[in-house]
TrEMBL record:
Keywords: ATP-binding, Nucleotide-binding
Protein name: Fe-S cluster assembly ATPase SufC
Keyword ATP-binding: yes
UniProt organism field: Muricoccus nepalensis
Gene that this polypeptide is encoded by: sufC
Protein family: Belongs to the ABC transporter superfamily. Ycf16 family.
């Protein structure tokens, strides 16, 4: 379970998160929607421990562990995964080597044996087939020359290999066409079940047509102002934020 209690955070001295309280139980997928500048990406980066995002109050636990006391790599080892809105390119770093190194680092923390190159390729190729990814993507630099859809599928491949306890997806649907969106959603849905939960940050209902959330939360001005079931996302798609925000005021 991911439990966030009265979380506040700032960037360069400016308060962005103003008291976020949220629980994502094991096995559930929750969506966060909200207008631009509401603090959605700030929340994802603060949870992941990105430099420059200063936590000024509150607490965050992952299955009872204090997430805020951990370094970013320790958060990943504890089971937290962040899929970026804009995945970065890593020229000179081979995708296969990057993925295998990350997977073996996680396996060590779990007490599992590391995979050699052949074992890794067998696992990676199976996951890539599920995601409709060509195998030659393993031979390229991390995200170098990848299309927007390929970058997002590569993120989902990382998630499928690492099998996190909680995945935070920061506008993963950004820049995806219909086919790529479905493939990415299928990759997330394949992980759904006990021991896995996700926090999906999105502007649009279209992603939630494929990844149906258990709960939807509206974030505005650094706070969760209202929550509801999947029907809340449909209402936002049809009416926009104004009515919902007026009711929550």
């Amino acid at each position: 379970m991911l439990r966030i209690e009265n979380l506040t955070a700032e960037i360069d001295g400016k308060e962005i998160l103003k008291g976020i309280t949220l629980e994502v139980p094991d096995g559930e997928v929750h969506a966060i929607m909200g207008p631009n500048g509401a603090g959605k990406s700030t929340l994802s980066y603060a949870l992941a421990g990105r430099e420059g995002y200063e936590i000024t109050g509150g607490s965050v636990t992952l299955n009872g562990q204090d997430l805020l006391e951990m370094e970013p790599e320790e958060r990943a080892a504890a089971g937290l995964f962040l899929a970026f809105q804009y995945p970065v390119e890593l020229p000179g770093v081979g995708n296969a080597n990057f993925l295998r190194t990350a997977l073996n680092a996680i396996r060590r923390t779990r007490g599992d044996a590391e995979l050699d190159a052949m074992q890794f390729l067998k696992v990676a190729r199976a996951r890539m087939k599920e995601l409709s990814m060509p195998e030659d993507m393993l031979k390229r630099g991390v995200n170098v020359g990848f299309s927007g859809g390929e970058k997002k599928r590569n993120e989902v491949l990382q998630m499928a290999l690492l099998q996190p306890k909680v995945a935070i997806m920061d506008e993963t649907d950004s820049g995806l066409d219909i086919d790529a969106l479905r493939i990415v959603a299928d990759g997330v849905n394949a992980l759904r079940g006990p021991g896995f939960s996700a926090l999906v940050i999105t502007h649009y209902q279209r992603l939630l047509n494929h990844i149906v959330p258990d709960r939807v939360h509206v974030l505005a001005d650094g706070r969760i102002v209202t929550s509801g079931g999947p029907e809340l996302a449909h209402r936002l798609e049809a009416e926009g934020y104004a009515g919902v925000l007026d009711e929550a005021a």
